[in-house]
């Protein structure tokens, strides 16, 4: 009589252990106290603007109501990531006015590459803040923010706590400009492909550096289908046979995919070399390509035409960008945005609209495009199960 209740209560305990263990291992969400981002214009929230002048209106018109350091009519994927993990939008590390780094900082600048370029911004449009420079800035940010934090007062309300660095999510979206800069400087496709191992070695060095300083959760975007972007379609000569049914340039998208295969291998290697960290590789390429491919199905139109631009087959002109002025038949014309940016994918010929960024974020947030397939909020976990 006495053993019966004990058996069933042991059984009950076993059951509850089984049921609670799963959530503990796989279903609990991470608490990311901060977000640190590295990248190019795909995730620049004010870096290049702070250093070299504000991105002009109508950038920012759909959400911020004014230019906000972003090359878009509104928010970027990194903004939706910040919001998705319950943090404020990221200020740019380079921005010295009115910024608050309590919950992270953004080291990305428009035009950034992984590898240092041998040209200046005014010569080629590529940023001097390549990924190695962003990494040095991060090193400075850790040491100097902690020195300032210890001074107390207002610094405690503007800078992260020491333990935020190990708990933070580290996001990356960089590589596209390394590939396009190769083409723009006259390299052949084979030469661009030959540069990929060096690009990824330099990428690896930066991730290792962050790991050494305590970083444990890495969320790495692969590169998008830049063969679908007006600035590539317009600038680089493409033969009709090299265009896919969607209208994108196949050779450039092939190179993007080649880069992504190697990036995925690089992330696999990092996972082995840095066993205490969680790495999530996110296939941005497939999300963006499916949006462009099935634009109409998802409520978008003119998938290859810039919303804010001027002239040509793609509403894009290399000489005059979104917000610039052009003289046509003696009359000055402002390069304005299209009627309805919320139904467009490409903003200015190089970057995506807020609507497209939101769509892509909604695809990737639950892990459907990730390896391992872990949702954003669980990206501190090393395994999906
Ligand atoms: C810059 O020049 C150096 C020396 O010629 C070369 O090794 C390097 O690959 C070049 N970098 C790029 C991004 O082309
Ligand atoms: C900076 O932001 C954090 C949280 O977003 C807030 O608690 C803090 O008060 C802000 N600092 C200042 C000086 O406003
Ligand atoms: C500029 O003027 C020429 C000649 O009058 C005309 O053919 C052309 O359509 C005009 N272009 C624009 C954009 O108005």
Write a structural description:
With 385 residues, this protein is an alpha/beta fold. The chain has one domain (29-303, 341-384): SGNH hydrolase (Rossmann fold, 3-Layer(aba) Sandwich), CATH 3.40.50.1110. Helix content is 39%, strand content 9%. It has 13 helices and 8 strands. The strands form 2 sheets. The chain has a 6-stranded mixed β-sheet, with helices on one face. It has a two-stranded antiparallel sheet with strand order 6-7. α5 packs parallel to α9 (196-212) and α12 (284-293) packs across α13 (354-364). The protein is globular and about 60 Å long. It starts with a helix and ends in a 14-residue tail after the last strand. Residues 88, 100, 102-103, 154, 157-158 line the site of one 2-acetamido-2-deoxy-beta-D-glucopyranose. One 2-acetamido-2-deoxy-beta-D-glucopyranose is lined by residues 328-329.
Features:
13 helices; disordered N terminus; 385 residues; two-stranded antiparallel ribbon; Rossmann fold; alpha/beta
Write a short abstract of this structure:
By secondary structure, the protein is an alpha/beta fold.
**Element pattern in H and E:** HEHHEHHHEHHHEHHEHEEHE
CATH architecture field: 3-Layer(aba) Sandwich
Main β-sheet description? 6 strands, mixed
Query: Can you tell me the number of structural domains?
Result: 1
CATH class: Alpha Beta
How helical, in percent, are the residues? 25-40%
CATH superfamily: SGNH hydrolase
What form results from the Cα inertia axes?
A: globular
């Amino acid at each position: 009589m006495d053993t019966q209740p004990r058996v069933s209560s042991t059984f009950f305990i076993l059951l509850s252990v089984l049921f609670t263990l799963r959530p503990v291992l796989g279903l609990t969400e991470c608490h990311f106290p901060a977000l640190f981002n590295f990248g190019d214009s795909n995730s620049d929230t004010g870096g290049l603007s702070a250093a070299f002048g504000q991105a002009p209106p109508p950038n920012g018109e759909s959400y911020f109501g004014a230019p906000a350091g972003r090359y878009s009519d509104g928010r970027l994927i990194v903004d939706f990531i910040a919001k998705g993990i319950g943090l404020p939008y990221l200020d740019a590390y380079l921005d010295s006015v009115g910024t608050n780094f309590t919950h992270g900082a953004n080291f990305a600048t428009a035009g950034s590459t992984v590898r240092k370029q041998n040209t200046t911004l005014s010569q080629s449009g590529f940023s001097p803040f390549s990924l190695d420079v962003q990494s040095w800035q991060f090193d400075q940010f850790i040491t100097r923010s902690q020195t300032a934090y210890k001074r107390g007062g207002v610094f405690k309300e503007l800078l992260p706590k020491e333990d935020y660095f190990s708990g933070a999510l580290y996001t990356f979206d960089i590589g596209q400009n390394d590939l396009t800069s190769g083409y723009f400087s006259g390299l052949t496709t084979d030469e661009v492909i030959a540069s990929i191992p060096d690009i990824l070695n330099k990428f690896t060095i930066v991730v290792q550096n962050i790991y050494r300083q305590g970083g444990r959760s890495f969320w790495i975007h692969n590169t998008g289908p830049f063969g679908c972007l007006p600035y590539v379609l317009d600038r680089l000569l493409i033969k009709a046979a090299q265009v896919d049914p969607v209208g994108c340039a196949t050779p450039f998208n092939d190179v993007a995919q080649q880069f992504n295969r190697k990036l995925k291998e690089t992330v696999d290697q990092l996972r082995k070399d840095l066993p205490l960290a969680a790495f999530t590789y996110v296939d941005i390429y497939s999300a963006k390509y499916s949006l462009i491919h099935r634009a109409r199905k998802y409520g978008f139109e003119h998938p290859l035409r810039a919303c804010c631009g001027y002239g040509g087959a793609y509403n894009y002109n290399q000489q005059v960008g979104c917000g610039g002025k052009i003289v046509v038949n003696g009359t000055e014309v402002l390069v304005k945005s299209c009627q309805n940016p919320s139904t467009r994918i490409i903003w200015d010929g190089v970057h995506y609209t807020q609507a497209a960024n939101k769509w892509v974020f909604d695809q990737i947030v639950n892990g459907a495009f990730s390896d391992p397939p872990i949702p954003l909020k669980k990206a501190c976990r090393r395994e999906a199960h």
